[in-house]
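Lecture notes, part 5. Sequence design as translation. It can be helpful to think of inverse folding as translation between two languages: the language of shapes and the language of residues. The source text, in structure tokens, appears below.
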């Protein structure tokens, strides 16, 4: 008997899944985990989606993400509290309302 016949007996018998239901056994690991290969791929893919800079709203000029020799108030790097005028205009990152793809206030897709 093939392994496929063990899982899907209706194929060998020429019946259907109601008459001969599938016999599936699921692997239950005691702890949830993410496979290493997936985590490495997600890490690499996610980092490739970051743009060099963003225009976060209509008030603040474009801010760089990876600026080395720039003052802290000109980049998005670091772990600090942002100024209050740095509020995100989510319409610049998500298609909330139609915007011109070539305009200065276009949606900044990854």
């Amino acid at each position: 008997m093939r392994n496929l016949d063990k899982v899907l007996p209706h194929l060998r018998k020429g019946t259907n899944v109601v008459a001969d239901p599938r016999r599936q056994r699921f692997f239950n690991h005691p702890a949830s985990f993410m496979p290493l290969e997936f985590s490495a791929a997600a890490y690499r893919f996610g980092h490739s989606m970051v743009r060099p800079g963003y225009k976060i709203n209509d008030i603040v000029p474009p801010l760089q993400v990876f600026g080395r020799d720039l003052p802290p108030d000109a980049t998005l790097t670091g772990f600090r509290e942002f100024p209050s005028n740095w509020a995100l205009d989510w319409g610049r990152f998500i298609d909330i309302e139609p915007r011109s793809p070539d305009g200065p206030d276009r949606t900044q897709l990854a």
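The translated text above is only one of many valid answers, since several sequences can fold into similar shapes. Helices lie at 3-7, 9-13, 36-48.
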